[in-house]
User: Which sequence fits this backbone?
């Protein structure tokens, strides 16, 4: 199923070639994608260390990851080569996640940026093919596997909420 929702005001900082994405409505089915540079966003009020997802949500994310991501990134998140032997799917957990670490790769961005980037580029053969809820669940699984602690409540698949959670090093 294609992405069933419009992402309103989602901004990527540093992702997608350094462009910031801001449009009244951005539809991830490829119908409309607006990009602008230098858009200022409000400072997030929470961080990934604020226990923003639940263990149950991460468990759903693990299942979705195994079904949609594990083939290339491996079930243990260690990464690997693509089918054709050209290109490498990066590790998604541990000190070499994303070429450095999850926090180093995404620091200064929000969970909205993380979800947008993953949703718009993955799975490689069918970007935006999962629901927003599923992409958010997968991101919570990545948080858990990178030692970001869970809380009691699910992380909502709500763009304003995702944009209000910063990726920062632990304090």
Assistant:
């Amino acid at each position: 199923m294609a992405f069933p929702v419009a992402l309103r005001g989602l901004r990527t900082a540093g992702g997608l070639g350094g462009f910031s994405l801001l449009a009244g409505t951005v539809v991830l089915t490829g119908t409309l994608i607006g990009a602008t540079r230098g858009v200022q966003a409000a400072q997030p009020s929470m961080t990934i260390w604020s226990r923003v997802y639940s263990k149950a949500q991460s468990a759903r994310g693990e299942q979705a990851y195994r079904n949609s991501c594990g083939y290339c990134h491996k079930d243990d998140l260690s990464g690997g080569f693509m089918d054709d032997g050209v290109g490498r799917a990066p590790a998604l957990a541990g000190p070499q996640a994303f070429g450095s670490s999850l926090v180093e790769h995404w620091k200064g961005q929000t969970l909205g940026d993380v979800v947008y980037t993953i949703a718009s580029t993955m799975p490689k053969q069918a970007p935006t093919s999962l629901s927003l809820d599923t992409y958010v669940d997968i991101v919570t699984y990545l948080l858990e596997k990178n030692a970001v602690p869970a809380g009691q409540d699910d992380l909502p698949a709500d763009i304003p909420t995702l944009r209000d959670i910063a990726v920062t090093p632990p304090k």
